[in-house]
Amino acid sequence: MIRPAAFGFNHQTASSNFFQKKGSNDRPNFGQIILQEFNNFAAKLEDLGVAIIVFDDLASPAKPDAVFPNNWISLRGDTMILYPMLSPNRRLERRKDIIKKLQGDCSIRQCIDLSYFESENKFLEGTGSIVFDYQNRKAYACLSNRTHPKVLTQLCKLLDYKPIFFRAQDHQKRAIYHTNVMMNIGPDFVVFCSESLRDKQERINLHQQFEQDRHTLIDISLEQVQHFAGNMLCVHVQSTPYLILSETAYNILKPTQVHQLEQHASLVPIAIPNIERIGGGSVRCMLTEIFRQNSF
């Protein structure tokens, strides 16, 4: 996790992230409000027994989205992946000191650096663009200007994963900018917004994939996507699964959906309303997983 130092509305990302809402960043206590949301989130994870590593963002140069590190880096076992980012001010988040620290602490032997695709204007923003099904070695991605098929195809060749592309749109037929706002895969379930797929055959194909892999489908609506109901992450403390989601997401779920999810994990709602509203991302975006065993 990255504790923010200059969080705010990012004008460079707003043209494709329709979840962002302008707020009063100039309020005297704005920074304290954001830090309180972040610190409460980190403390809640620690109370559950989740081991976390927190890096402090550097105030200069300003990086308004630094609180969302999952877009520029992912780690699994001894492999680190660095991703190409659309917005120039988000590329500043790829800090060499963080990379070096994680390489040492996590015994990284291989670094796959895809950032060179930025020179080709092709992007793939980490586990925002990709929802990995680690058990079945599949990588799901809804295409947008932040998620280019060539980059994911290249990554999947290196990891020996199967890429699965589709197109997802909101009510106004705009591309959904990141896959992880409308989709999440747990050990034996998938949260997915079928309504966002306009192509009927694509929807059928995706449902067949889920059925084939024995994932129970919890279908959410586009309205629920707008409230970050797809932006969840399942973590395990010893053998106990917890599903981390925001209070905004939890409050928009129907009782039947809550019941379905509770069959698979204990739900842990986190209050981050200002980070969500202004940053256009939720709890899953704030977490970069570190897997000690290499499942790639």
Walk me through this protein's architecture:
There is one protein chain. With 296 residues, the protein is an alpha/beta fold. The chain has one domain (2-286): L-arginine/glycine Amidinotransferase, Chain A (5-stranded Propeller), CATH 3.75.10. The chain is 29% helix and 19% strand. The longest helix is centred in the N-terminal third of the chain and has 19 residues, at 30-48. The chain starts with a strand and ends in a 17-residue tail after the last helix.
Give me the count of strands: 14
CATH class: Alpha Beta
Largest sheet: 3 strands, mixed
Rg calc: 18 Å
Helix and strand run? EHEEEHHEHEEHEEEHEHEEHHEH
Q: Can you count the helices?
A: 10
Q: Helical residue percent? A: 25-40%
- Termini separation comes to 22 Å
CATH superfamily: L-arginine/glycine Amidinotransferase, Chain A
List the defining traits of the structure above.
single chain; 296 residues; alpha/beta; L-arginine/glycine Amidinotransferase, Chain A; globular
